[in-house]
Amino acid sequence: MQDKGIRPLRILVVEDDVLIASLLSDMLAEMGHKVCAVAATEADAVASAEALAPDLVIADARLRDGSGIAAVRRMLLAGPVAHIFISGERRLAVPQGALLLLKPFSKGALVHAIGRVLAPEMSG
Fold first, then answer.
1. SS (H, E, C) the chain
2. Burial level of 75, CB count in 10 A (0-12/13-18/19+)?
3. What is the pLDDT of residue 5?
C-alpha cells in the first residue's frame, strides 16, 4: 500500500541486526518502497550508497563494525542524501538537524519520519 503524497523510493537500509533489517525491509516494501540494498557495516553502507545512489538512507546509528552516523557523513561528502537514523538509545548524539527514530517504532512513526525528511524535496 503506497503512502499518499510520497513517491516510491529506493532505500538503502544500514542495519547489522538481520531480524531488524528484514522487518524494516518488509515494512518499507508494504509501503510501496524498494529496498535497493541492506548493508551491515559502515564500509558496505558507503560503497552501496556510492554504487546505487539511493533516494533515502535509513541507518542504525551504531553498528558492530563502524557507525551508521559516520557512514552517512561519508555519503554526504559526495552530495546530499535524505537520511534517518534509528537507534534504541534515547540520548544518542546525532548530527544537528538529523532525524532520530527510536526503536522499536511503528509503521506510522516510520511514515511520519520519511515524510519529514522528504518535506523540502516534496515542496520544491
1. CCCCCCCCCEEEEECCCHHHHHHHHHHHHHCCCEEEEEECCHHHHHHHHHHHCCCEEEEECECCCCEHHHHHHHHHCCCCCEEEEEECCCCCCCCCCCCEEECCCCHHHHHHHHHHHHHHHHHC
2. buried
3. 60
For the segment 88-94, the average pLDDT, to the nearest whole number, is 86
- The class of domain 10-123 in CATH terms is alpha beta
And the C-alpha cell for 10?
Answer: 529506493
pTM for the model stands at: 0.91
Domain boundaries, the chain: 10-123
